[in-house]
């Protein structure tokens, strides 16, 4: 049995997909280990040229934000700019790109924890306007979200 041209194209495309982890993005963004940063830059150039399709997910971006905050002590504005840069990297496909972009902007502009900003954006995307939480201060800063504590 032979592969059809569509199946072959699909299998070729899959062969060129790869996951990119947080540590690679950190090396690239921070250039704290120049040899590794250069290797990641070469990989990103290959992705921009279409030689490889790089994919990553929400957890990688969340870990990137957390590491930049807790270990590197970067400001929310610096972190937002780094997240936006990653989201706009040619050849890199980021799961829930638009929600992450909205969250990055809220995170810096409204001084909200990144995960809370993402959860608020996710809820709004799902047309959920009421959130229950005992920690309400960040969710209250998200336009279109009402937050209540259970039992009140």
* Beta-strand residue percentage: 5-15%
Describe the global form. Answer: elongated
Spatial strand sequence of the major β-sheet: 1-2-3
Summing up helix and strand content along with how strands pair, one would put the structural category as: mainly alpha
Largest sheet: number of strands, sense, barrel closure: 3 strands, parallel
The whole-number mean of residue pLDDT values reads 91
Number of helices: 7
Distance N to C terminus: 65 Å
Helicity level, as a percent range? 55-70%
Question: Based on DSSP secondary structure assignment, what is the total number of beta strands?
Answer: 5
Uncertain residue segments? 1-12
The value of Rg in angstroms is 19 Å
What is the string of SSEs from the N terminus onward? HEHHEHHEHHEE
Give the gist of this structure:
This protein is mainly alpha-helical. The protein has helices at 5-15, 22-30, 34-48, 58-70, 76-87, 97-109, 114-125, and strands spanning 17-19, 53-56, 92-94, 130-132, 146-148.
Which keywords apply here?
mainly alpha, about 55% helix, 7 helices, single chain, 3-stranded parallel beta sheet, two-stranded parallel sheet
Describe the structure.
- With 152 residues, the chain is mainly α.
- The protein has a domain at 5-95.
- Helices cover 56% and strands 11% of the residues.
- The chain contains 7 helices and 5 strands; from the N terminus they run H-E-H-H-E-H-H-E-H-H-E-E.
- It has helices at 5-15, 22-30, 34-48, 58-70, 76-87, 97-109, 114-125, and strands at residues 17-19, 53-56, 92-94, 130-132, 146-148.
- It has a 3-stranded parallel beta sheet. Strands 4-5 form a two-stranded parallel sheet.
- The longest helix has 15 residues, at 34-48.
- The protein is elongated, with a radius of gyration of 19 Å.
- Residues 1-12 have low confidence and may be disordered.
């Amino acid at each position: 049995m032979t592969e059809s041209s569509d199946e072959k194209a699909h299998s070729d495309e899959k062969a060129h997909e790869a996951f990119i982890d947080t540590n690679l993005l950190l090396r690239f963004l921070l250039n704290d280990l120049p040899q590794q940063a250069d290797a990641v830059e070469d990989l990103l150039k290959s992705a921009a040229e279409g030689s490889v399709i790089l994919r990553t997910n929400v957890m990688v971006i969340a870990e990137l934000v957390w590491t930049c905050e807790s270990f590197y002590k970067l400001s929310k504005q610096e972190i937002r700019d780094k997240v936006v840069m990653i989201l706009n990297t040619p050849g890199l496909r980021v799961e829930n790109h638009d929600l992450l972009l909205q969250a990055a902007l809220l995170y810096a502009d409204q001084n909200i924890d990144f995960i809370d900003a993402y959860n608020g954006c996710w809820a709004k995307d799902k047309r959920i306007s009421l959130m229950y939480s005992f920690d309400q201060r960040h969710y209250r800063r998200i336009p279109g979200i009402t937050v209540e504590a259970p039992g009140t």
